[in-house]
Amino acid sequence: MSKQVLSNRSAHEMPSNYRFNCMDLVKFICAILVLMIHVRPFDPQKLGAEDFTNINFILKNHICRLAVPFYFTASGFLLFKKIDIKKPDTERIRGYCLKLLRLFGTWSFLLFVGKHYQLWYLEASVLAVAVLGFMMKKGVKTGKIILFSVIMYIIALLGDSYYGFLAMLKNYNVTKPFINVYDSMHTSVRNRMFFGFIFIIMGALFSQRKIVINNAVAVIGFIVSLGAMFFEGYMLKQHSAPKDLQVYISLVPAVFFLFYLSTHIKLVNKPIYQSLRVVGMLVFYTQLFVDHFVKLAIDFANKKIGININPFHFVLTLMFTLLFSVLLEKLSKKEKLSWLKYLYS
User: Phi/psi of residue 64, each to 5°?
Assistant: First the structure.
């Protein structure tokens, strides 16, 4: 597979028919990373190695956290690449939001068996895109939109990884009532635009502005940012009381550099990338549905047959999710089953 690094062009300067194959590849990998968040890749009790606990922690709370922000950024880029920010096409924005709502409703209905809480991403995307489109239509300057996104992200930080610093204010009578109200209203920052808005606007800026940096700087920047995420998460876990470890300060530059690289590494056009784009989306939507039945099979094997296949939980879920997704993608290409395309487009 040949590849060429484009170092002298901005992503927004690419022709309209340019295929961002590397972006599709990264999005496919991100779908698998999301699965790793929900299903532990390694079972330390069954495999008998405590080190696997640390590996699971690093995968779930650091590397895998790149996935959804990358989705947000890619969505912002692909949508606003076709829109003039100064004169936003509100019909296109509305159509995009309606499509996401249709996908959310369709998959919520279909996934009545098992869990489907990964679909929060669709809700958050709709809200973030709608607010951004509204601000653009009202002529809000880009600098103010970026400032707004930073404020939203700070709120997300305080409601998640940096919650320990916010919780300390409960020790004071003056601030305790405000924090209690915040807790009651802010049960999950990811389900609102606080978390996703900054990445949506990042993607929009990639689509509208000339952003060109040295490729070596992009690679080093990504590696350093990822290392900073490890350090940030470790320090927060050791010296604070995070509600969760989903939102980091260093996550923003990490996603920036990763997205830059994904749009500047040219992969030769092949049908596989179009398929990966669809299969990746289907993996994201169906993974917890498949996992529900894998759990039932594991429980049956343990209790009825006496075979312990628990250590292969992740492998089985990943394998059957991929098989199911590939099958749906192949079937959707048949004329009589073309309606299946509504599951991902």
Answer: -70, -20
Contact criterion met (CB below 8 Å) for 232 and 248: yes
| 36 vs 31: CA distance, rounded Å | 9
Find the DSSP H helices in 159-304. 163-167, 176-185, 193-208, 215-239, 251-264, 271-300
User: What tens digit of pLDDT does each residue of 96-122 get?
Assistant: 999 999 999 999 988 876 667 788 899
pTM of the model: 0.90
Instruction: Provide the domain limits for residue 244.
Output: 3-343
DSSP readout, 138-197? TT--HHHHHHHHHHHHHHHHHTTTTHHHHHGGGGSTTTHHHHHHHHHH-S-GGGSHHHHH
Amino acid at position 303, single letter: K
Q: How many domains does the chain have?
A: 1
On the CB side of 22, how many CA atoms lie within 13 Å of its CA? 18
Backbone angles phi, psi at 84, to 5 degrees: -85, 115
Interval 141-160: pLDDT, tens: 999 999 999 999 998 888 88
For residue 162, give both structure tokens. Answer: 């940096």
Residue 194 burial by CB count (10 A; 0-12/13-18/19+): exposed, middle or buried? buried
Supply the pLDDT for residue 46: 54
* Residue 330 structure tokens: 């192949």
